[in-house]
Amino acid sequence: MISINSLSTNKKESLEKFAKSGYFMKGVVYLLIGVLATMTAFGLGGQVSGKTGIFQFILQQPFGRILLGIVAVGLFGYTAWRWTQAFINPENDQNDTQNKFRRIGFFISGLSYGTFATFAAKMAIKGGSSSSGGGGRTTAIAKILEVPAGEVIIGILALFIIGKGVYDIWKGFSNKHMKKVSDLGFKTKEAVRKAGQVGYISRGIVLLVAGYITARAAIESNASKAGGTEGAFEFMFSSTSAWLVGLVALGLALYGLFMMIKAKEFYIQ
Description:
globular, single chain
């Protein structure tokens, strides 16, 4: 494991810029997902979208291709930061079992956001996409289900998503989300802490639902049952009160806002 202390100051500064741009663009995406889903829940228009649906929304705005290109660059930065966390250990964590699992999670997260960044870049270059993100995910899961032990692979993926959801909820309740956030006045920091707390818990709930419907797809060997953020919201809308879903969606918007604030305050020791 390479230590962050072995890197030059210039390389540390470059990593910090990657992380900041990544956190900010991740925040923008989640803020839009949350706001649009909240509007849907409270009958104010809007739409239920996952990350790739938000890319389409951005593309439809004035200068959409340029904006989406900027988002793609930021998400590539976040991908680079996640893989840095996986391989370089920039936060100087102990090399124990718990942190080894965390680094595996960082690698998988980087792989996921790298896929989204590539998708956004292709949309920005081509000016659109012939298939939706949800359809692409369903197709990918369908192909995995066709291979031997495909249900087991999807089941493991579901367990990972559920585990991430539990971790996010714990992170919100334990205030671990405030790590690396500094230089804020007391009142401002308390407001940011509460926003992040609600945000992480809400994102955890969405991940738990996404994990459940992915597990259901594995058990029933039916790719159409699976789904990410968009599928989770659609399931919640069909299963519970729109007002409760709206509160979760609003929390997800706060998570996005927290990521944007974290981008400004983030630093590498």
